[in-house]
């Protein structure tokens, strides 16, 4: 045997030894990740690892489907909640000036028309009106000037604003 060949053979042996140590460390790490009570042989460890990974994937898919369903249910509930939200009407009268604040759901615009109708019927002039939407609520602010008497009493009666008798 030549001196160069023995050196390469020693090098190959060292590489193989390092590879085996590395594989042993990988298998040890794999064994620590698998929920088992007894120590398993390598083939059993690999089989159990693959079945455990399949179970985890299946569980993950089930949880994703459940999350999507719950998010869909949540959207429906929020939509229903927004449609059932009762309007909030606040009226402040200072002399002949009238400030009306209305908070409604996004799809409840009919009240605004009714407020303008009552103001017009009672002889009030609308000076400014503003609107802003935040999330599922719409905020209206109406500033008006009363020309004759007070129109606050009719505006404060919810039956006339919501179409009830």
From TrEMBL:
Residues 46-80 form a coiled coil. SMART domains: HLH. PROSITE patterns: BHLH. It comes from the Eukaryota. It is found in: Nucleus. Gene3D superfamilies: Helix-loop-helix DNA-binding domain. Residues 7-56 form the BHLH domain. One of its GO terms (biological process) is regulation of DNA-templated transcription. Its main location: nucleus. Keywords: Coiled coil, Nucleus, Transcription, Transcription regulation. GO terms for cellular component: nucleus. SUPFAM superfamilies: HLH, helix-loop-helix DNA-binding domain. PANTHER family: ACHAETE-SCUTE TRANSCRIPTION FACTOR-RELATED, BHLH DOMAIN-CONTAINING PROTEIN. This is BHLH domain-containing protein. The lineage of its organism: Eukaryota, Viridiplantae, Streptophyta, Embryophyta, Tracheophyta.
